[in-house]
Amino acid sequence: MREEGQERGLQRRACLASLASLSVGPAAWLGLPSAAHAGGQMEEPLIDSVRTALSSAVADMAPPEPLFISTESRLTYLRWLGTMSERLRRSKPEWEVRRDFLQTVWYESKRAGLDVTLVLGLIQVESAFRKFAVSSVGARGYMQVMPFWTRAIGDGDAGKLFHMQTNLRFGCVILRHYLDREKGDLYLALGRYNGSRGQPQYPNAVFAAQRRWIYQAPDAAA
Q1: Whole-model pTM?
Q2: How many domains does the chain have?
Q3: What is the distance between the alpha carbons of residues 220 and 222, in angstroms, rounded to a whole number?
Q4: Which CATH number is 22's domain given?
Q5: Which pLDDT belongs to residue 135?
Q6: Dihedral in degrees, nearest 10, Cα atoms 188, 190, 193, 197
Q7: Per-residue pLDDT tens over the stretch 64-105
Q8: Which residues, at least 6 apart from 34, have a Cβ–Cβ distance to it below 8 Å?
Q9: Sign for the pseudo-dihedral over CA of 58, 63, 68, 69
Q10: How far apart are CA 166 and CA 129, in angstroms?
Q11: Using an 8 Å Cβ cutoff, are 143 and 168 in contact?
Q12: Residue 71 domain-assigned?
């Protein structure tokens, strides 16, 4: 994974604070409905320093090309990619589509300092891996990002939320913010992402989905 991207993501984590409460609801990920489902959301004003920090965090859309510090780290990534590709085959039959999606999830998760299994679990719950999923309240794409985020910290073009990397970038930055805001409490951070802070249904659904995406390297297998 690109080391510079990781370092920039870690630096920006300290700046992510005082954002609007995002409430992105779970999709019916056991099936493939035509629309995703999100809960009620509330947009709040951002102070200038927060807006600047978050705008910086979603900018710099360099291609998500992994770079590795060693041959072993590259081989580990390729083994992970092959394993996850097989698990994702039912949702995304084309190899090139699966590869590009997983590579981008890896890149954006690492950039934001998030566990890639968590992000994959969240996407499974939110959109069932459907790029063009739209909820009843207008949340869009893989991570069900609300259009107001593009006005708050982007260029205002909500159509870009159907672009794979843009959607994953926004979703990971927002989730990172809530995790920092909750001082590392993932249960509460997920509740904020969904707009159901303190309620167990959404975090438990994400944790259950996350288990599907855990990767055990062959040399670590029992």
Answers
A1: 0.79
A2: 1
A3: 7
A4: 1.10.530
A5: 87
A6: -40
A7: 888 889 999 999 999 999 999 999 999 999 999 999 999 999
A8: none
A9: negative
A10: 15
A11: yes
A12: yes
